[in-house]
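Hi P.,

Sorry for the delay on this. The queue was packed all week, but I finally got your sequence through. Input first:
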Amino acid sequence: MSAEATNPAPSRRRGRPRIDLRRLGRAALLGPGGRDRLPDAISHVADAHRAHHPDADLAVLHRAYVLAESSHRGQFRKSGEPYITHPLAVTLILAELGAETTTLTASLLHDTVEDTDLTLDQVREQFGDEVCYLVDGVTKLEKVDYGAAAEPETFRKMLVATGNDVRVMSIKLADRLHNMRTLGVMRPEKQARIAKVTRDVLIPLAERLGVQALKTELEDLVFAILHPAEYEQTRALIADNATAGDALAAIADDVRTVLREAGITAEVLVRPRHFVSVHRVRLKRGELRGTDFGRLLVLVGEDADCYGVLGELHTCFTPVISEFKDFIAAPKFNLYQSLHTAVASPDGAVAEVLIRTHQMHKVAEAGVVALGNPYAPVEGAEDGEDGVRADPTRPGWLSRLLEWQQATPDPDTFWTSLRADLAQDGEITVFRPDGGTLALPGGATCVDAAYAQYGEAAHACVGARVNGRLTSLGTVLSDGDTVQLLLPEPDASQDAASGPSPDWLDHASTPAARIAITGWLAAHPEAAQGPATGPRPPTAGPSSEGAPAEPDEGSPAGPRPPSPAAANAVVADLPDAAVRLARCCTPVPPDTVTGFAVRGGNVTVHRAECPAVRRMEALGRAPVTVSWGDASECRVTLVAESFGRPRLLADLTEAIATAGAAIVSATVEPPSEQRVRHTYTLQLPDAALLPVLMRAMRDVAGVYDVSRAQHAARAH
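Then the structure:
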């Protein structure tokens, strides 16, 4: 339809039902249907826009449509439709999701600079800098200039632009959705290629931006192209169970009754599963019941009402506790909030239930699109000192992506790393000792945290503490962990070639870490060919249950040092038994201790928290009551972890002597990755001096940990 025939400011038709994108996409997949042209062209978009933004100024949308229609006039899609139907359809998708006027304006114009004679300067002149930036962000790079690198470099350009304005990616996702809906006119091989890129890049991006309405339909469209046999099976399964929703509808009626009697105002809906979801449930559960083809959605007004609904459901129905998840108290990294649970009806049918507020539902469906324009100045708020507003929608994964992409000028490396990065599910937040946080992908290790925090300085990292415990750099982190990365002191002597080993690549899951490690190894080939010096787990500290095993008292293996039992005067409630202190945990007064009878009628004494105690209790060994005698002196084994430097051994022995302890024996392991471990067996005149001694040893420059020796002990 010509631009002259459009209605520049249509009146809002009250009561007109909103278009359900899920239902439209589902109907298109289930079978052929009417493809009616958009009535009155831009008026359809205007009505959808006014449903979310009643006071929106539609004049700018009319001007953008006139420019787009005149620019694309004479162009046709491969389906034979006028080209203007594509930007109109993309804009309608975004309008239905609640996008604000600037996004819709740019969406109408998103292909003009790429496919017509219109220039960015002309767009800027007529619609301003914001619209110009969005149009430029989604404009593809020319194959003439970039050749085979055009596609990865186009995505790099879009992602960089998204880092400054997430609306760029919103337009790209809607653009890809409409192209996937109309992909049937393409050759099969081209359909498959586009579907694979959609699966590997666009769908994960939609998930990370929280735009579930687009993500689920894209998944179904990709499923139909890349897995046609499984898709047809699922399609037939849904068609054969057209009345499956009746089972959920009956439970929904019961839920409405329960909530009404409880005085909770709520909207209870039956929400059909999309194709991929049904396929996944079938693989997980085998034969499906009627309630497996959908879920119940309960919408309420306030956050507190969500928990009120949950309480009523768990009281009046049988809850399936393993299915409960609270994404309100702990939102997902993509803004998603909801309570998930499942309840069983009297006949045994299990229904999954989603509970959320109306606002949560809007964000769950539209993600960042539902936030409107996050870059508009907030009335009464002041910009930061640098004059730049903080972007509330720029998540951690996007910041990480923008950082590592700068280090990958090679398009192939970027494309491979991008797909690997987006393939990681979920995101975790870990805390630094200074109170700061690091956002990392699920499955990240201490190696990833080191490079996220220190960049290339992490090459010198020698270890980490997770929740206060020494651990290896390969340790996988969990959401909420506190992580302290251990780097040598700036003035500590270091080998200039000291850095990561090839083994570190086995522990690195983020592109930033892998790119940095690979770059260092390429610059230091001698390290790549040398002996493996990857992160080694420490054997010190009370939590190192996986340390190398060492024979305990009573074990027949090898000579052992003199028993300190006499010095520590432990008394056992077992007549005539010789008492020995276990070397796996070296207890000293006033430690809580327990004993176990061993071969030869002896009693071995362990600290109560020693792992050997749990192992022997599990074997049914009865503990022997033991207590400390009157003697105050004791013998203890301490392990000092430090960075290598000159005079370290001398300074440590001086600190030990100054604290009044005598060295019975000492062992210094060869340095590894600039890290040195010292093990001292010490005689103290008074057990009360032990905390003072350990503090004095920690105060020695270069020492970052001193702990009681803790070795894995054998069960006797």
